[in-house]
């Protein structure tokens, strides 16, 4: 796992609460990449490519990121963006919440123009949510509030909140035109303090018996629960010691066992879409056949 802790800040709980209360009132809308998640998944742009409050698409931008009207209602988080981080290379800053939901394992930036190493995503959880986890390749961690993480979104990763407890977070993205040092993203050099020990999430061993139980889902898989089975499979690696990309291996194998070629094709397509390559405008349906 290349994801790691970059530093930590103390959150001012009183100021934070006012911002969180506002974010709670912003309605849930259809998200870009809604196909990647189920349940409650809410992204609110504070800075983005256009300055439009409802523009949630992460993309390469010309010039600097533009503040949206949400920044006026989130003064504390906006201050963190501009005082902790060096905004010279800012691409996007957004809050992201996930409740009783899972994001399917995927890789980001595959649809963008730069080499993936020139994108740098940071992620900071703002609230205690004991059953909200992040995975990156063979590791599952729980982010603690105030920890600023480099999230290696270019490799296989996923997120889940197994509870209804809010797990609001601040995701700040940077992009560079050439080689850079990760400390360049900070305006305040005292925040940069790498080497912190993450809170790893213990998982159960993944055995052949576990795999057999998963593959027996072929007995219940149908087109109308294909999406549910994908999300069910996406949770397995948070609980068992297995790579997140296995999610798609099982889905393809289960689909093959049903003998339904359309399900096999869709399973292979979703794997290619999430892990391999997609165009910026590509969208994918899990429910139309
Ligand atoms: Fe992602």
TrEMBL record:
Keywords: Dioxygenase, Oxidoreductase. Residues 29-174 form the Aspartyl/asparaginy/proline hydroxylase domain. GO terms for molecular function: 2-oxoglutarate-dependent dioxygenase activity. This is Quercetin dioxygenase-like cupin family protein. Pfam families: Asp_Arg_Hydrox, Pro_3_hydrox_C. Residues 184-280 form the L-proline 3-hydroxylase C-terminal domain. The lineage of its organism: Bacteria, Bacillati, Actinomycetota, Actinomycetes, Pseudonocardiales. Coiled coil: none annotated. The keyword Oxidoreductase applies.
